[in-house]
Amino acid sequence: MITIKNLTKKYHPGVFALQKVSMKIEAGEFVSLVGVSGAGKTTLIKILIAAERADEGRIVLGGWDITTIRKSEIPYLRRQIGVVFQDFKLLEKKTVFENIAFAMQVCGASPNRIKKLVPEIIEIVNLKDRMKSYPSQLSGGEKQRVAIARALVHGPKILVADEPTGNLDVNNSKEILDLFLNINKIGITVLLVTHNKDLVDSVKKRVVVLENGRVIFDKDKAKYVL
Amino acid sequence: MFLFTFYRIIKFALQGFWRNFWLSVVTITVIVLSVVSMNFLIIINRVTESAAEVIKERIDVSIYFKNTIEEEDVLRAKNYIDSLSQVRSVEYVSKEDALDNFKNIHKNDVKILEALDELEINPFAATLVVKANDIGDYEKILEYINTSEHGENILDKNFGTQRENIEKIQNISANVMRFGVVVSVIFIIIAILIVFNTIKLAIYAQREEIGVMKLVGASNTFISMPYLVEGVLYALFGCIIAFLLLIPLINFLQSYITNFFAGDVVNIRGYFHENIVFIFGSQLGAIIVLNIIASGIAVRRYLKV
Q1: Domain-wise residue ranges, chain A
Q2: What does each of the 305 residues of chain B score in pLDDT, given as a tens digit?
Q3: How does DSSP classify residue B93?
Q4: Which residues pair with A58 in a beta bridge?
């Protein structure tokens, strides 16, 4: 489903963020992408969501070559890929409901669809009783669940999580991981970018390790290797 | 879907407008000043044009003949002048009429009338009062008369002070117009810069929302449109307020001008009334286009969609 071939990105002459990275991720897979800071994980995610352009190589997503994507097509690509970040990126002046509804509003969803879909998604992430709360009234784990709910509203085929547990304690991290596994069970491809060894080891799914912009390890049902 | 999107773009634009309320007020104020100054130019132009027309209408040249010249020769000169294509009308004022006119003007001044009686002869000359088709024709007409056989019969001509008056009015008008154009251009430039800055600050204030919008796949058009609409709103409010202010201003100026010209010669109220759609439409259109350009540059530069 995602084919990455010889992907190369350099920010400065001679300083490579990614060097000839190649891998294939099948639809419905759960992949943990690990590596130390500066290994190229975030650069790979940025290229995947067309926030940056690769210098060489290709990423093809369901027949769609992202490396040559037109500017006007980027929004449609991003509706196919749900993304969550370590810092949640929630709007502080909006409630849980409004934060999720906002993602639908700005993409042209009708009020009726928003009214129907948002509570359903909030229920999936188990935040039904926090629907009217503001981000400042939520715990870190709850905030990340709101971010996950928002990433799911467009029914994406892929969910990319960039250090989603970086700001969370062990229990909350476990809860978020369980949520990702459940999301993966319904057929959504999950790409989990993390430093968290315990988290990766507990998943027992495919692990890809990046080092200095290169793939140095790629194995199914593996553990964190560094 | 289009309707929801349209509604949300307007809603977001209004939110941006209210969120930076005082900045919006300043932006609108400068637009109001630009529009008022532009219309002030139109008023000045109308007033000076009309004033020049009034004076042109009153201007004429009096040609005084020597006292020894017979009436017959004066009338021949009249026919000659009348035949010139530049002449609109020639009026003959005989010696007797000139004397009567003088007596009539000074009927209350006994000393002047007594002095006139003591003279025993009529000191006034026969006169031709000439009106030209155009103010520029007077020079030519006088030249034709001077070089004709009637030239040596002429005692004097009074042309000059009225021409100077017209030139003065035209000079003042041109200077005021130049000053007005400079002031208007300055206001318009300030308005464009302020709109640009307001939109820049609005983008900065909403950077988190913009980030989320980009993240969740909002289209570039949807993200940028509210800022362009905000620019249009500033233009719309600015022009409406300016025209609401102009109504009493024009009424006040009209009564002042009517008093000054002693009549309804310069009708700026009527002019605005007749051309309101064109004046308002063209100015609103121009300000909207300028604001869209200013907002568009800010969006391209700072929104990075």
Answers
A1: 2-219
A2: 788 899 999 999 998 888 888 989 999 999 999 999 889 888 888 887 777 777 777 778 888 888 888 888 888 888 998 898 989 889 998 888 888 888 888 888 888 888 878 877 788 888 888 888 877 788 788 888 888 888 888 877 776 566 677 677 777 778 877 888 888 888 889 889 999 998 998 899 889 999 999 999 999 999 999 999 999 999 999 999 999 999 999 999 888 888 877 665 678 888 899 999 999 999 999 999 999 999 999 998 888 76
A3: E
A4: A5
- In B59-107, where does DSSP find H-type helix? 71-82, 95-105
Helix axes B268-298, B21-58, angle to 10 degrees: 140
Same domain, B66 and B184: no
Same domain, B116 and B232: no
Pick the CATH number of A2-219 from 3.40.190.290, 3.40.50.300, 3.10.129.10, 3.40.50.1370: 3.40.50.300
Positions of E strands within chain B: 61-65, 87-93, 127-132, 154-158
| Rounded Cα distance, B225 and A72, in Å | 15
Residues B215 and B269 reside in one and the same domain: yes
User: pTM of the prediction?
Assistant: 0.74
Q: Chain A closest CA to B13's CA: distance in Å?
A: 13
**Do B213 and B267 reside in the same domain of the chain?**
yes
Which residues of A are less than 8 Å from B216 in CB distance?
78-79, 102-103, 106-107, 150-151, 153-154
Search chain A and give the residue with CA nearest B222.
A106
Q: Both B184 and B49 in a single domain?
A: yes
Which CATH number is B112's domain given? 3.30.70.3040
ipTM: 0.87
Q: Which residue has the tokens 């004076």?
A: B55
Question: Please, which residues bridge with residue A160 across strands?
Answer: A83, A191
Chain A residues bordering chain B (beta-carbon distance below 8 Å): 71-72, 74-79, 83, 89, 91-92, 102-103, 105-111, 150-151, 153-154
Confirm if B95 and B125 have CB atoms less than 8 A apart: yes
- Residue B43's domain comprises 2-55+165-302
Size of chain B in residues: 305
Instruction: Please provide the size of chain A in residues.
Output: 226
